[in-house]
Amino acid sequence: MSLRPRGTRAARSPAPTMKAKCTTPSTSSSKNRASGRPRRGWSCSRGSRRPQGVASRRSGGPRAPRARPHSASWPACPAAPLAAAEAPSSPSTTAALQPRRSSRPLLGNFVLSARPSLRLYDLELDPTAREEEEKQSLLVKELQSLAVAQRDHMLRGMPLSLAEKRSLREKSRTPRGKWRGQQGSGGVCSCCGRLRYACVLALHSLGLALLSGLQALTPWRYALKRIGGQFGSSVLSYFLFLKTLLAFNALLQLLLVAFIVGPQVAFPPALPGPAPICTGLELLTGAGCFTHTVMFYGHYSNATLNQPCGSPLDGSQCTPRAGGLPYNMPLAYLYTVGAGFFITCITLVYSMAHSFGESYRVGSTSGIHAITVFCSWDYKVTQKRASRLQQDNIRTRLKELLAEWQLRQSPRSVCGRLRQAAALGLAWLLCLGTALGCAVAIHVFSEFLIQSPEAAGQEAALLVLPLVVGLLNLGAPYLCRVLAALEPHDSPVLEVYVAICRNLILKLAILGTLCYHWLGRRVAVLQDQCWEDFVGQELYRFLVMDFVLMLLDTLFGELVWRIISEKKLKRRRKPEFDIARNVLELIYGQTLTWLGVLFSPLLPAVQIIKLLLVFYVKKTSLLANCQAPRRPWLASHMSTIFLTLLCFPAFLGAAIFLCYAVWQVKPSSTCGPFRTLDSMYEAGRVWVRYLEAAGPRVSWLPWVHRYLVENTFFVFLVSALLLAVIYLNIQVVRGQRRVICLLKEQISNACILLLGSALPPGFPVPSHCGLSSCRFLLWGWRGKTKSS
Amino acid sequence: MGSRASTLLRDEELEEIKKETGFSHSQITRLYSRFTSLDKGENGTLRIPELAINPLGDRIINAFFPEGEDQVNFRGFMRTLAHFRPIEDNEKSKDVNGPEPLNSRSNKLHFAFRLYDLDKDEKISRDELLQVLRMMVGVNISDEQLGSIADRTIQEADQDGDSAISFTEFVKVLEKVDVEQKMSIRFLH
């Protein structure tokens, strides 16, 4: 484009445009002049200075968000000073404002190599341009004379494009005001701000990385998610339960190692004879070279360890040690085991209550499909693997919800129900008979073992009883499962619960027989030998045998069965994971551990190793051989049920066993920390008497012991208070749930009232007091119930 | 979308955005620098790999663009992001007479509703629901089951019997969901 005098260009338009030209010395900032780049209003298409805030394609012409260019000229300088509140909307002023003409040619067409003098040529010869310039500078002066707020207000009201307003503001800014701008001074201030921002961002991302690192540390996180996504929440609950058991065992073992095993290892007693050579059989039997180690009760000394010489209580060893802390081993043994059980009890009850509270939420289940469909996708996932996992999870959950809903839709006839009840009764009878038969068989067999003379040194003979019990434990549930397959069940949840009950009764019968066998018969037989060692070793054997049989069962029950069913029977379906049986196996193993803690302080460690191996074996077998349950179902209450089963039959039984062993049974006189006492509990009494004799300084402790711990009246009082508190809590919770239900009904009634006039007659009444959850919670409250 | 914005953001625009969306000064500035840095290559398109793995990715992209246009400017960007601003307690009862703030529960739900309503007829029909489900759960599920789930969802939510979910029904069925917390992003101050 050739260079033309300014005036010709200006004559084309009805009114000359603003002079924010690139070359105007007065308008361009020193920055631009120094860089030599012409700053030419807002039509520079190649430059970087576009109007702020516009993200557009390179389609030429900025997108002016508001003002459309219209012809107006620069305002004549307002003669009177504008009041602050007066908007500059007088037609004369605003009509006089003139935006940039959009027909201005782009810089791209301008020859940059033109000499500056030529570029200046336009300006000086153009009278209208100069007029515009004057007007603009007058306006700027006027703006400068106003206060900042007024200036902003006035500028805001002007119908100019943002670019022009910006340049006006730039020009009218006082030197002091220039520093206030975000971009204005550049330099130090925004640098500080940017630094601060960078620091905050770095800290934030560090915190997030730490959090995600901590989360990644939780063991088996990915494996559990995968299992939950592929197989559903029911199978996942088994693995979560396994994880919980690991935690319990770890806690118990930590306590025992710190207070019993550690000190005994630090001060080992003299061994009675030469240590036997270790053959491989010890791992199975626990006898042999394991006998006189910290693993079993008999190894622990009955004296005070680290005792300085000259104490009347200690009879045997007297090695002079300076500055050591005496450690009363019998007392420590008794109280550590007691404290371990107490802490386990508290933790169990707490986690049971917590899981109960979570699963019985006070909320209706209406709209659960829609909420799952609309609100379950987590948009924070950024990895492909995680998004696939999420898809699996959502799909399984939707299938479970659908199955649950479809179940509720199909009722049964009376005849069908009668038939179902009869089949159920028969199956129950048979299963109970099986359990009883197993118990009797074990009793007879164990008596036989006691009567028959054991060949000395025949370690392998010790494994017979565990093997027989293990086989019975394995076989009887299969029988019950076959029986359960014959009876029809509507809901898979009920099926699992029934199977669990039957299996549980079987295991309780077996364990009860065994406990009687140990504490009743074995103690009598092994009076002058170390019966505690024997019982500890028996429990070790049972635990190991249980593990071996579980491995075999997984191998044959799942792997071989899958191969057979695929190759020989030509069925498409892989076997399903039997949750009831597996969970009860876990509970059984844990009960054995708790039974044996008193006699073998390292038994929880064995159980931990066993659980770790079980997790990996079961996971591998599950992913390879099994498939998702045919009828998916929601396992919201499963973990509560498992924990309840763990707490009530299992832990309670073990605690009763422990109490009986501590209070009633005479410890053997040749080994262990209680060898000179009548019962294990005596250790505490002996110590209290010693304290009484020690002096008046600690006389409150014997007093507490005599009047509060040994006094039965006090124990009754405390138990009665505890029961009263529990009852009150139950009533309060019941009342609160009733109130919630009533409130919900009121809300839904109010909604109906409001919508009532708009609804056609016969419209189904919506109910939002979720019937199932209310019925669950208000056991026995026969209030108003609506059909949902 | 392209971003050829300059690095200047004037105070008056800041004020307007602040009034419309409720973000603070510093937040708007941060977001502005993020916005401008999104199109580093200056070729008019963006690559956001995280959206690629998200099954509803293109719906999210569509939500940023106003009706019928193919570019978004900073105002539009802020307007969309304003839906995700957490609701603070002190602004709940501030301005009863003015327009509803963009991050109110109703506006958040409306935003979510528009993600699912493909043809913009203010109703989520069975087909749209099926499309969403198909995107969300992948392929290992039979059409019949998907159809049952869609039917059940519509049955739960639909109250006027037109076999589609309107916005009011959508709001009703999600009344128990803590939308304010789920649909919020913590913006750094």
From TrEMBL, chain A:
Which molecular function term from Gene Ontology is one that the record holds?
mechanosensitive monoatomic ion channel activity
Q: Keyword set for this entry?
A: Membrane, Transmembrane, Transmembrane helix
> Does Transmembrane helix show up as a keyword for this record?
yes
Domain TMC residues, every copy: 530-636
Principal subcellular localization: membrane
Q: Biased composition, Polar residues: where in the chain?
A: 23-33
Report any Pfam family annotated for this entry.
TMC
Q: Where is the composition biased (Low complexity)?
A: 55-96
Stretches for region Disordered: 1-101, 166-185
> Where does the record say this protein resides?
Membrane
Which family is annotated?
Belongs to the TMC family.
Protein name according to UniProt = Transmembrane channel-like protein
Native organism: Macaca fascicularis
The gene for this chain is TMC6
TrEMBL record, chain B:
The record, for InterPro entries, names:
Calcineurin_B_homologous (IPR051875), EF-hand-dom_pair (IPR011992), EF_hand_dom (IPR002048)
Where, subcellularly, is it found? Answer: Cell membrane; Cytoplasm; Nucleus
The UniProt GO MF terms for this protein read: calcium ion binding; calcium-dependent protein binding; sodium:proton antiporter activity
Annotated GO biological processes are:
negative regulation of calcineurin-NFAT signaling cascade; negative regulation of protein import into nucleus; positive regulation of phospholipid biosynthetic process; protein transport; regulation of intracellular pH
Keyword Metal-binding present in the record's keywords: the answer is: yes
Question: Short name of one Pfam family for this protein?
Answer: EF-hand_7
Chief site of localization: membrane
Span of domain EF-hand = 104-139, 145-180
Database matches in SUPFAM superfamilies: EF-hand (SSF47473)
The alphabetical list of record keywords is: Calcium, Cell membrane, Cytoplasm, Lipoprotein, Membrane, Metal-binding, Myristate, Nucleus, Phosphoprotein, Protein transport, Repeat, Transport
Q: Name one GO cellular component term.
A: transporter complex
Keyword Repeat assigned to the entry: answer is: yes
Q: Which family does it belong to?
A: Belongs to the calcineurin regulatory subunit family. CHP subfamily.
Question: What protein name is recorded for this chain?
Answer: Calcineurin like EF-hand protein 1
Q: What is the lineage of its organism?
A: Eukaryota, Metazoa, Chordata, Craniata, Vertebrata
